[in-house]
Description:
The structure holds 2 protein chains of 2 kinds. By secondary structure, chain A is of the alpha/beta class. In chain A, 40% of the residues lie in helices and 18% in strands. Chain A has helices at residues 2-24, 38-48, 64-72, 87-92, 123-131, 140-145, 166-178, 180-185, 204-214, 224-229, 249-258, 295-309, 326-337; strands spanning 27-33, 55-60, 78-81, 97-111, 120-121, 157-161, 200-202, 218-223, 236-238, 244-245, 281-289. Chain A has an 8-stranded mixed beta sheet with strand order 2-1-3-11-4-8-6-7, sandwiched between helices. In chain A, strand 1, helix 2 and strand 2 (55-60) form a beta-alpha-beta unit. The radius of gyration of chain A is 21 Å and the shape is elongated. Chain B is mostly helical. Chain B contains 11 helices and 2 strands, in the order H-H-E-E-H-H-H-H-H-H-H-H-H. In chain B, helix 4 packs across helix 6 (169-193). Mean pLDDT of chain B is 88; it is low at 1-6 and 315-319. Chains A and B meet through helix 3, strand 7 and helix 9 of A and strand 1, helix 5 and helix 10 of B.
Amino acid sequence: MISKMINFSSAITICVALFAAQGGAQTLINGAGSTFDYPAFTKWFEAYGSVDANVRFNYQSIGSGAGQKLLLNQTVDFGASDAPMKDEALAKAPGKILHLPIVAGGVAIIYNLPGDPKLRLDGDTLANIYLGNITSWKDPKIAALNPGVDLPDTAIIPIHRADGSGTSFIFTDYLSSINTPWSDTVGRGSSVKWPAGIGLAAKGSEGVAGQVKQLPGGIGYAELAYADQNKIPFADLKNEAGRFIPPAPDSVSAALATAKIPEDFRFSMVNAPGENAYPICGASWVLLYQIPKNADNGAKLVAFLKWAVTEGQKISPSLDYAPLPSEVQQRELTLLDTIK
Amino acid sequence: MNYDNQIDAPQSTESHWGDHAFKWLTLAMALSIFLLVFLIGFELSKGSKPALEKFGWHFLTSSDWDPVNDIYGALPFIYGTLVSSLIALVIAVPISIGTAVYLTELAPLWLRQPLTMFIELLAAVPSVILGLWGIFVMVPFLRDHLFPWLQKHLGFLPFFKGPIYGVSMLAGGIIVAIMIIPIITSVSREILRSVPGLQREAAYALGATRWEVTRIAVLSYARKGLFGAVILGLGRALGETMAVTMVIGNTPQIVQSLLAPGYTLASVIANEFNEATGDLYPSALFAIALALLGLTVIVNIIAQILLKTFAGPSVKPQH
């Protein structure tokens, strides 16, 4: 029902665009999907005005799932999603859909302890906290990772997202890749069946951050930008190379540079092998058809995306996104050239 | 005679036409309500078909909600919706009816208007604002003061056992109570105001005290209407989404403790619909919506039966 309403509203915007096009030969490109990408798109749309003033964008940040749905219905020119599309969904599409990584970001582990000590954690400990096997901050496993830190004997309250979210996908993807009991019992997804009776769920990143701030002993996860802006302490995470790395645009870029990226760009970048790579991070993709339904819009969209994956990346760090490494940029430009 | 006819004939046809048009127009409006409900039901059934075909009645009795493995059951959400609404009614009904009685029977005239205005102001507070207030003001207060007190004095009851997080089924019930108090109060006040003055005068004439007048002549006379006011509040409580989502803890579980987090039907739709991909997952959320619609209808039918059984034909004053 919601998607129908969206169809309807985009139909209206398309009509409005047609009128506008008659006046000033403007092109309106419609997109929908991930809320994680929304701040980047907003900045880019504005900055792109000085490159090509005749293109206007309408992006609805209604969630990755809805973005995929609208792209499959060919209601929008492009979709944006925090998780790559599944094979079943791609099989249903009326044409070949391309995945184009557009931004990458880290997920920070935030916590509330007296005195705000700097913590070090690893994936196995995190998984056991969220599985309910580690229940106190004084647990020997946490103490072993944090020599010299005075840990209180308070209960750990793990907090997770209640709403379906790309952030949850990255977090559970990471735990699944590290901890076998986690991947067997919970798995990865934008919503998962969290272990029963352990901790709390909050709506949105602001909800998770709010609960962590309020509850002594709380631990949670949120996009780096969120933790940064709200001045909540976050942990250094042990990466594949055995080093403890804080989340930052640099360490996420380092992860991107060393992650294995296949031909179709559907990849997971958690626990990347780089020396300086932060382990809990993920990319977000722009989804578009190789043969666009509307050729004019398609050409304008490709021009914009070529700009976004190169020039646009310079804006990324100011929004706490990691810029795409130049090697990845080149590969994406090659992919964009295949669009008719 | 001739003159009269000339005047009468066009006039009567005209009013005849007007009457007809008016009748059909209002009929069309009334039917549009049926059409709307029918369309909503139809869309929901259509959307929920894949999930219901796969799980059948088991969907309503299973407690498993696992989007990763595509297994869906609605029981914890149905439980959460019913319990949070029940808590809300237990808190809101005495406060609302008490306020309405005070406003119509006891309050000095100069106080009635400002108090009524405040109640209507409370009704106008958007749900999401109440939810934010709930997270940042109400929940910390409950966690640090009310809940520890409840646990200390009533901890022997299973309802108040377990760890205290603040966000909980009880917090959800309290926020819903705050939201339905204005509705129940406003409707109850209108109903009590419509009790004829003769009723009261007759009771006073028999030597009744103020309390007896209120009880015998007013409340008992108006009980059917008051019951209707409560049902209106209940309808709102069952469907309330944003504020509840923010304070209930969003954990699909069935536990006795009211201090533990819960989940409602409306909340799970609001939380998960955006990111629901695949075929079965969105369909399961449609089925949740259908369950909510069904629950509302069943609760209303039960309310109608209760009304017929207990309230009786009290509208006609026979005492």
